[in-house]
Amino acid sequence: FTEWRQLGATSIPVVGSDVTATAEWVKAVGAQLANKDVVSIVPASGDTGPGSQTFTSTFQSIFHTPARTLSPNMYDSLNVVALAMDAAHSTQPSVYVKDIPKVTTPGSGVTVVYDYAQGLKLLNQGKTIKYFGVGSPMTFNKYHDVSGGFEAVKTDASGKYTVLEQIPADKLT
Question: What is the pTM of this model?
Fold first, then answer.
C-alpha cells in the first residue's frame, strides 16, 4: 500500500473481502492507510436479531474477544446441522440432510427458534421448528442456498468496524 500511494493510485477504489476487515490485516497494511483507502464487503453482522444476544455472550465468554466476521454464519450452520441431526435421530449425513429443510422452513404451525436449546426442546416435544439465525434468517431457496445481507465497512486497528452501507440479500439474488 505504501508503493500504491507513492504511485498516486489512491483514486482507484480498493474493495476487499471479509479478510480485509480483520484487525490483523488492517495492522499489517497500516491502520491509517487501510481506513482511508479500503472498503470491505462482509456478511451482515446480524447482531440485532433475537438470537444475537445468546451468540454474542457465548462467543465472548469462550474467546474473550468480539466475534469475527463470518462467526455468526458458522454458528448458524452448526445449529442447523445439529437440529437436523436431532430431528432425524441420526448423525449420518445421508440421513439428516433431508431434515435440514424441516428445521429451517417457515410455515403455518411452525415455531420460530433462535438458538439450539430452544429448537431441541421443541423437537423433543414433537413440535415443528424454523431456526432463524444470527447471520441470516437461514431460509433456503430452491437451489438449497441460503443468503443473508452484506455490509460495506471500514475497519480500525482494533478490529471494530463502521458500517457504511447495508446491502440486503434480496438485492443480491
Answer: 0.73
